[in-house]
Amino acid sequence: MKQIIEFLRQLRDNNNREWFTEHKADYREAQERFNRLTEQLIVGISQFDPSVSGLTAKDCTYRIYRDVRFSKDKSPYKTHMGAYICPGGKKSGFSGYYFHIGTGDGNSYPSQHMLASGDYICDPHVLKILREDICYGGGDFDQIVTDAAPAFSLDRDSILQRVPHGFPSDSPYADYLRLRNFCLLHIPDNSFVLSPNLAERTVELFRTTLPFLQYVNRAVEYVKNEGKSASH
Q1: What are residue 141's phi and psi, to 5 degrees?
Q2: Number of folded domains in the chain?
């Protein structure tokens, strides 16, 4: 992973087409290394979550090229590499396991390394189902969050100031009802990413988030099936 991080740092400092073209071979080598890691993660996660069995690195990884059409930042290339391992691949709409290598020398996205499990920016219909499940689930969601590895914490970015309309403001699960992102996050340091058993350590952390992911995907599946029913 050291070679990947070094390439990403150089790319950050030289984020232009001329430099990238001259170092295309370095990029391909870094991408191939990341793809091999992704394939290891798929195999490892499949041992406890068969829903991702059979995926390839191509199903889960992203292009290095940024979409700059609606961005003030016109830098043409991403300075991180990420893989989203979920049922059906990254475009399926299901929640999954996200692994991300950045430059490792900053305190925010995308320079930070990242492990995430769940759904970022949930579909409004999925959000509604999740909130109903939590509100009337008798604490089952709270237990699921507690049972995840201590390294993970809920993503509270963009949390609502108030409990959404239609839900009791005095609910014991009010903090969960205000969430907009149902995602568990872990921000590892460079020593974690550079460890020789990175794939194994990552898989073991993700293993503890399986119940959380299944909880979220149950709502995703319900909304998908509801949509199919409505179209017939």
Answers
A1: -65, -40
A2: 1
